[in-house]
Amino acid sequence: MILISVVLATFAAVTLWWTMHAWRTPETLAATRFAEPDGDHRLTFSLLLPARHEQAVLEHTIQRLLHSTHQGYEIIVIVGHDDPDTAAVAHAAAAKAPGRVLVVTDHNEVKNKPRALNTALPFVRGDVVGVFDAEDQVHPHLLEHVDHAFRTTGADVVQGGVQLINFHSSWYSLHNCLEYFFWFRSRLHLHADKGFIPLGGNTVFVRTDVLRTANGWDGTCLAEDCDLGVRLSSRGAKVVVAYEASLVTREETPDTIGSLLKQRTRWNQGFLQVLRKGEWRRLPLRQRVLARYTLTGPFLQAFSGVAIPIGVAVGVLADLPVGIALATFVPFVPMAANIVFQTIGLRDFGKQYRLRIRPRHYAWLLAGAFPYALLLSVAALRAVWREYSGRRDWELTTHVGAHLQNANAEAGAA
Amino acid sequence: MTTTSEPQQTTTTALIPKARGRLVETTLPRLPAPDHEQRPARVRRRALIGGEGLLAGALTTLVLTVLGVNISGYPMVNDDEGTYLAQAWAVANGQGLAHYTYWYDHPPLAWIQLAGLSWIPGLFGTEGSTVATTGRIAMLPVIAAVVLLVYVICRRLGMAVWPSAAALLVFGLSPLTVVMYRGVYLDTFAVVWMLAALALVLSPRRNLWHFTAAGAATAIAVLSKETMLVTLPAVVLALWQHTARSSTRPWAAGGYLSGLVLVGVFYPLYALLRGELFPGADHVSLIGAWQFQLGSRAGSGSVFTDGSIAGNLVGSWLDHDPYLLAGGLIATVVCLFVRRLRPPAVAGAILVLIACRPSGHLPVMYVVQLLPFFAIAVGGVLDLVGRRAPARRRLLRLAVPLVLAVLAATFVAPRWWAGNQVALTADYHDGYVAAARYLRDEVPDRANTTIVLDDVLWLECVDAGYRPERTIWFYKLDLDPAVAARLPNGWRDVDYLVSTPALRGDSTSLPAVNTLLTNSTVAAGFGEGEGRIEIRRINKENP
Which residue ranges does UniProt annotate as crossing the membrane (chain A) (predicted)? Predict the structure, then answer.
């Protein structure tokens, strides 16, 4: 019992330590931001935009990308041959902006995001490949900053920030938003510093030559972004992460608990696949340990998120000796500290994005912590079960555009 | 916003037609972190390494020598010291948190720490002293930490080296410090943790984990001695000031709060798990103990009333050292008006104000908490004086400390010398040593002897072979029903009573002790006058 407590406490403490990486000192926080660009545009970008049954949001996304202030970029929209609605929207956009927008049709029988991206790779003409999702809201100044970041840091990969915005939709959206906030704002920077990074699914920019040398994406992997990051890290690529609240790519959370569960199952299963592929074994020892820990992280987190509260309950209800009962509370300490920091994170999130955080949102945060941990555990179990029973198909999340409505409402209010 | 300069770049925007497919080679150096707007222009080196470390180390050694020589002979051992050591013994021997029912009189962390240090006296040998006074040796590392922390805090408050060193010496060599810090008091543990918290919130790197650790240290300080809580505002103020204009202030505050609450909560949690949080009919409770401490405890009068307990106590402090107390008080008032020196001054001011309240309990060791903050304030004022000298005139800058040193040597040093000479030579403890030897060697059948005594000799007797359950701390006869139950025939079950100053002082309010005193005769006596120790045999035949 005490041993379990020690293990859980250690894990929770490490998680807390990493989660808070960016806020360690004011200097670390300052270093996580994009540097102010010099106005020079030296690189050219090919922005890949895979879209599948996303005709509702695609048009808006393309229009926003076309507002970019950067001079040299093209947009490659990838649509499936069996998806005429989305294709129609894409072709209409291409007709309106000839030369800027290119439509590539994916003829693969089994469709998923990495295959779509690989289909587009031969058409890429830019120095740098950028990936976005069909529902992303991209800031017009982003490319300029990324251009500058590539040139000043000599990076092979630049990962920009992605942020779920619709925290007000439901209690789990709030937790989901905060997860993104801490992941992109803080944790990814630590991974970049340490030389092992699972990349994000979009707003990720890779030098085309590096990407081609790495043979693009893995079409069979459910977490192609994580896999790409691991493969590039293993080859010693330099990854730079930068987060700027005004420049992040805005996204929406899954619209139901069911789809959140599916999405998370997919990611977890993807992490498992990457773990089993073993590409990370090529890394030097320290990164290898980090890799193993990161890739199993979702499962440990899911386990401890449930085990710690249960341990506390046992400590209170069962008739244990006082010493042992106190020991069961030890892992709760970093966990509770995490909740305190999440509360501050929520406040900070509201300030940075000029969103009003109401008391009920803080209540959701506190009351939802355990149910959300439960949800993550179910997703983790589901992922393990699916992986070992050989079900490796792609469960897609649908998008209704809640973050866009939010933006419109905001614009209306302002 | 950015500080990276790129002289090679032209300012005109290069228009690149879309997608040429060839990478423009960069000629710029790789810059790891492009944005350093928040780094202070001049980073002061504050680490205790090199020459400065040697200086602080040497001064601390000097102070420790003055404190350590004759530590078991002076001052007179206090009953509380025996209590805390006995409780530490109980912890170290797995007998729970106290050698009697633990009733939440004080949080237990201080003697748990003391139990952890109890191996230290063994390194020095215990010849010619009792367990109670050798226990003082275990405190030496804690005192060393207090002394060093005084220096570190001074430096982190932005003071120069010499005022910081002066603060260290003023604190460590004051006869009042020597007499108070030699005792085994919970306050010393509380002080060391509170000073650590203060030093941590003043962390030059403003690291989040330092702030979190500061919160934990604050909680440990309060769980070592609950009255330390009143200095919490000083640490919070330091945290607030130190994170001003920093992007991480809310996080720092959150870290501090987490550390404070999440460590502090373990104490009520312990009570809760034992079912002793709320008052009840037949058990002790944490909240009940708080009610007693805050409400029903007898006051010691006002410090301003002649002849009150509190008045006498302050008088005895002033006898030991008027300079640090008066100088510290003035310096505290001055420092309240200087932003960077305000945190320690706030702590000092709060402690002074609480001591001055018209009624309430003022314990003997209260001044232990006050002294380091006074010393830091004195250092702060010296620093202010030093800064008055114009920076360009180096001679003048050197003259200021020299003049101050001469003044101190003329006016303060003689008195301190006399006070510390007593501390280094006087033996106030030989009566206890002789009594302990008698109890160890002259009493037959010790395992079956029931003896009532004060806590100074309790541990000594248990060590000499008396059974813990038959060795009774005199207080408990009247106050602990579990102890009274061990004596079915009342006072006639007791064989010996050891009458010490502490016992006689409290016997008027303890009827059972009084009965023992009247129904006993002296078997052996040591010393004269008020400090006399008598070993009295109980006359069981008395009616």
Answer: 320-341, 362-385
Question: pLDDT class for A347, splitting at 50, 70, 90?
Answer: very high
Q: Is B269 on the interface with A (CB under 8 A)?
A: yes
Q: What is the DSSP string of B172-210?
A: HH-HHHHHHHTS--HHHHHHHHHHHHHHHHT-TT--HHH
Across the interface, whether the CB atoms of A126 and B33 are under 8 A apart is answered no
Beta-carbon contacts of residue B257 (< 8 Å; ≥ 6 apart): A340, B215
Return d(Cα B413, Cα B407) in angstroms, integer.
Answer: 9
Tally of domains in chain B: 2
pTM exceeds 0.90 for this model: no
Are B99 and B468 in contact, with CB atoms under 8 Å apart?
Answer: yes
Query: How far apart are the C-alpha atoms of B10 and B174, rounded to whole Å?
Result: 67
Interchain contact, B23 vs A207, CB within 8 Å: yes
Residues B404 and B272 in one domain: yes
| A314 Cα to chain B: minimum distance (Å) | 12
Containing structural domain, residue B459: 430-538
Which of B391, B425, B459 is the C-terminal boundary of a domain? B425
The alpha carbon of residue B438 is apart from the nearest alpha carbon of chain A, in Å, by 40
Say if B448 falls within a structural domain: yes
Q: Which of B405, B425, B445 is the last residue of a domain?
A: B425
Domain membership of residue B318 (yes or no) is yes
Cβ separation B13–A44 shorter than 8 A: no
**Cβ <8 Å between B4 and A152:** yes
Say if residues A165 and B59 touch (Cβ distance below 8 Å): no
Count how many residues are written for chain A: 414
Q: Is B245's Cβ below 8 Å from some Cβ in A? A: no
B318 plus B245 within the same structural domain: yes
How near does any CA of chain A get to the CA of B277, in Å?
14
Structure tokens at B276: 């002793």
The strand pairing partners of A102, in sequence order, are: A76
Cβ of B254 within 8 Å of Cβ of A126? The answer is no
Q: Return the SS3 of A77.
A: strand
CA B242/CA B197 separation, integer angstroms: 13
- Cβ–Cβ of B247/A152 closer than 8 Å? no
In chain A, which residue's Cα lies nearest the Cα of B269?
A: A326
**CA of B57 to nearest chain A CA: how many angstroms apart?**
29
Contact A71 B16 (CB under 8 A): yes
Q: Does any domain span residue B525?
A: yes
Asked whether residue B440 is domain-assigned, the answer is yes
CATH class (in words) of the domain with range A26-282: alpha beta
d(CA A163, CA A407): 13
- Is the Cβ–Cβ distance between B446 and B421 less than 8 Å? no
Which residue of chain A has the CA closest to B15?
A71
- From chain A, the residues in CB contact with B251 under 8 A are 20, 23, 341, 344
Q: What is the pLDDT of residues B482-530, one digit of tens each?
A: 888 888 888 888 999 999 888 888 888 888 888 888 899 998 988 888 7
Q: What is the ipTM of this complex?
A: 0.85
Q: CB–CB of A326 and B254 under 8 A?
A: no
Alpha-carbon distance B73 to nearest alpha carbon in chain A (angstroms): 39
- Sequence ranges of chain A with CATH classification 3.90.550.10: 26-282
Phi, psi of B30 (to 5 degrees): -75, 120
pLDDT, tens digit, 9 for 90 and up, residues A94-106 = 898 888 899 999 8
- DSSP secondary structure code for residue A137 in this structure: B
Q: Per the CB < 8 Å rule, is B274 touching A36?
A: no
For strand B533-538 and strand B520-526, is the pairing parallel, antiparallel, or unpaired?
Answer: antiparallel
B275 in contact with A at a CB cutoff of 8 Å?
Answer: no
Model confidence over A125-183: pLDDT tens digits? 989 999 998 888 889 999 999 999 999 988 999 999 999 988 888 999 999 999 999 99
From A283's Cα to the closest Cα of chain B, the distance in A is: 21
Judge: A153–B32 Cβ closer than 8 Å, yes or no: yes
Helix axes A2-19, A332-352, angle to 10 degrees: 20
